[in-house]
Amino acid sequence: MSGSGSLQMFVFEVTMEIKEEDGRGGFGAVPKDRNCFKLRMNVEKQVCLTVQQVMGDRDREQDLEVERCFGVLISPGRNVKHSDMQLLEMVSMGSGSVNDKKCYVITGQCSPRENAFEPLNVETPRDARLWLTVAVDLVVRGIKEPVRLVLETQVKVFPAAERFWTISRRPLVQQFTLNLKEVL
Question: Where is each Kinesin-like domain found (predicted)?
Fold first, then answer.
């Protein structure tokens, strides 16, 4: 580093929703109990992420703009290595707004036919849960290096014909703090 400037803190909120093919050509959000998404085996899935800055640098009231996403990665398991993650096929990405605040919305598709997702196609034993790691790589204006945000959540896999009585479709919401040091 040639010199150093002030430390700036930014808080981003990432909302993750998992959707499954509904048999009518569309995708519907999967149910979620407390901290666990309920998935069906051998069904096409979409991972939908919304990234929104909820707090900027207090002194400058500065917003960081997500320019683009260059990858959504997913892997069964927790604390997984980058090399174990599988890149999803991108369905859509772009800017949007939630409650009059700018956000960036990304949707990636997960095929049940891919070998890397085999654990998501095996019914989970009754009292067990499976961890799922999702990472999103972003290019943020004003930051030289890409920013990776990693979410870990529990899932339970059920047979494809399973019917759920739970109507809760709450997404997973997680906050990330990004501390930036200005290099002069």
Answer: 32-161
CA distance 72 to 107: 8
- What's the rounded Cα separation, in Å, for the pair 26 and 42? 16
Half-sphere exposure of residue 58, counting CA atoms within 13 Å on the CB side? 1
CATH superfamily of 10-160: Immunoglobulins (2.60.40.10)
DSSP 46: E
Unique residue bearing structure tokens 């990304």: 106
pTM of the model: 0.85
Task: Summarize the chain as % helix, strand, coil (round to 5).
Answer: 5, 60, 35
Confirm if 71 and 47 have CB atoms less than 8 A apart.
no
Measure Cα distances from 7 to 1, 56, 58, 65 in Å.
Answer: 14, 12, 11, 18
Classify residue 167 by its DSSP letter. -
CB of 141 within 8 A of CB of 64?
A: yes
pLDDT tens by residue, 54-103: 877 655 567 788 888 989 999 999 999 988 899 998 888 888 777 767 88
Which three-class secondary structure string do you get for 58-108? CCCCECCCEEEEEEEEEEECCCCCHHHCEECEEEEEEEEEECCEEEEEEEE
